[in-house]
Amino acid sequence: MKKLLSIIFLLVCINVNAQQVQPPYAARINRILKQLPAGNQQQLDSCMMQIKALGAAGLTEMAVMLHAPGKGDNTRLQYALSGYATYISAASREEMRKTAILAWSKALKLTTQPESKIFLIDQLQLFGDKSVVPVLKQYLLQPRFCDPAVRVLMQIGGSEALIAMEAALEKAQGTCEISLIKALGDLRYLAAENGIIKRAQSENPVLRRTALFALANIVGGDSGPILEAAAEKVGYGYDITGATAAYLLFVANLGHQWPTAPAMTAATNILRKCKGDSLEHVRIAALKIVADILDYDANNTLMLAADSKDREYSAAALALAVKIMNAANAESWIQKAERVDAGKKAAIITMLADSKQRAAISLFTKALKDSDPQVRMAAINAAGQLQSIEMISPLLVAMKTADTSTVKAIGDVLLTIRSSEVPGHIAVAMQHAPPSVQVILLQLLAQKQAAGQERFIRLLLNNPDPAVAQAAKSTLSAIGL
Hints:
The relative contact order is 0.03. This protein is mainly alpha-helical. α13 runs parallel beside α15 (243-254), α16 (261-273) runs antiparallel to α17 (280-294) and α19 (311-323) packs parallel to α21. The protein contains 29 helices and no strands.
């Protein structure tokens, strides 16, 4: 009996002692967590300083407190850790970052829960530096952790991170291989070109697609023929590996390098090879590359492209021309507008208006009298886009003989022109306009609150057309007279 009682007493003492032993920073950490989320900036700053005071050991203890999914509530703890990671990312907190890196590195070794590891790795994007590269190397070949580790290394950048990812690529498989290839491509790491080229012929379409786009971003000397061959193999059409899109991206990136001749040759070859409606989008992409390379000197190329019977291709040429428009180029397009059919003339007028070329106002004014309605409508809209005061009188003259839809369109444009001269021109012109036009012009004066034109409005109060007289009366009422 005495032996049994002794054993029970010993077990009770051990249990009580175990309950009394707590991690050294547990109480301080719990006090901090109770203050979060902070109600204001002052309270938040106070909490961050308390976390700082824990030091590396306390921060490590805090980090390893994260529960496994379903085993506890991590909300406050994650809020505290991510908040601190954000807080120390400021430029003036270098020492705090160094301490946190030590703590996070140790916590990653101690933490066994995958979700906790991923959370801690993700936070390193905010404050990690090249000193964490050795810590993250081991995760680059582990499918569960590779992607977050790669994101951190991409954020850190620098030779250490790049070399680590390139070395890992030699042994990587599956999702890790894809994550590393994409990262090295996005970072345009030329030293990884050969390793990625090996994957460009993979039977795995996802891996092959990733490799092709990575090579397109790296723009290495050995990548061009491989990417071109891949695009030609699919007839410059669509396939699951995106071979055509990757080659176009490669040529576009090549155009940003000097000399530009290789890119020009490649883009020109694409234009020559890609015929037919199904490859229209490829030709447009190649044309854009040419325009980007030649810049303001691309005008002649775009003028020729605008003559294409392919409407989408022609429209793309005009859209690209807007971006390189200057006085000399505008003059060439103005002259071209006089030589083309009505559809293209209207498109050129719209393009010149989009590029705000006031030198084309004479073209627009002349186009108001064109026999083709789409040309006239393009000129009317151009007047509104340029806020052209010079076209106010020609627009009002055109209203006198225009059809109902054109009259309304001109009225809408006159309403948008913000010049103080508009009401005066309208008031004078409406005296000799047809009744239907007079009504619309009176409505415009009402909308513009043209009180200064009272005398001209009153002249129409006794108009023999009752609709005009009523419109004059309503206009005076609308402007408070």
